[in-house]
Structure prediction request, 194 residues.
Amino acid sequence: MSKLKIFSKSERISLIVIFSILVIVSIPNFIASLRRARDQVRRDDLGSLEHSLDEYYAELGIFPPSSPDGRIMDCLKPGDKPYKDKKGQWVFDPIPCDWGKDAFVNLINGKVYMTVLPREPYWQKGVSYLYLSDGARFQVFAAMEGKSEPEVDVKIIAKNLYCGSSVCNVGRSYGCDIPKTLKQCEEEAALLKK
Prediction:
């Protein structure tokens, strides 16, 4: 019996070359689609954070403070509970919440705004979100990978803020336009009151 040959040697080589070209052409597109997907996660995370912070403010009249490293200061040490002092004021000692681990909760009534704070897609590479707040206003930043994304703002890049190991280039805010710092907005508000 003789073997049946489906393709000749030259046809097999041609097929290998064609498939190789297709793979080489498609890899950059695949990598770009993964980057776009991570940037979309960042957009969604910033939107969710902004919405949750707005809800928090609507209930308490203040935004949670920020830690020196840009995290939301709205978590408690294990075993700690808020309590009322002699004047009836709520007392608690918040600690920074961890992105991707802790919930965003109203410490007084227990309302959950986010079951888990979002975590930057490249957190393993040291990238994180950056939250800044003075209680009356907030700014939250991220570092988009796609430098040509419409949200990327050169004014934010010029501020040279770091979202972990990357320079922040996109953000959302309340009560303070992004190019300004919270301190500048606070000074402007004080001048307007005079």
Observations:
- The mean pLDDT is 88.
- The chain has one domain: 11-193.
